[in-house]
Amino acid sequence: MIFYSYEEFKEDVKILAKEIKEDFNPDA
Fold it and tell me: Does the keyword Glycosyltransferase apply (predicted)?
């Protein structure tokens, strides 16, 4: 298993959330 820090995890989640939000809001 690969372990990485909670800070890195939070950054990944923020990026994913941003991409998903843009998918739902094509005009953004």
Answer: yes
Task: Classify the C-alpha dihedral 18-20-25-28 as positive or negative.
Answer: positive
| Residue entry with tokens 């739902």 | 24
Q: Which of 6, 28, 9 is nearest to 18 (CA)?
A: 28
Encode 18-28: b = buried (16+ Cβ within 10 Å), e = exposed: eeeeeeeeeee
- What predicted TM-score, i.e. pTM, was given to this entire model? 0.52
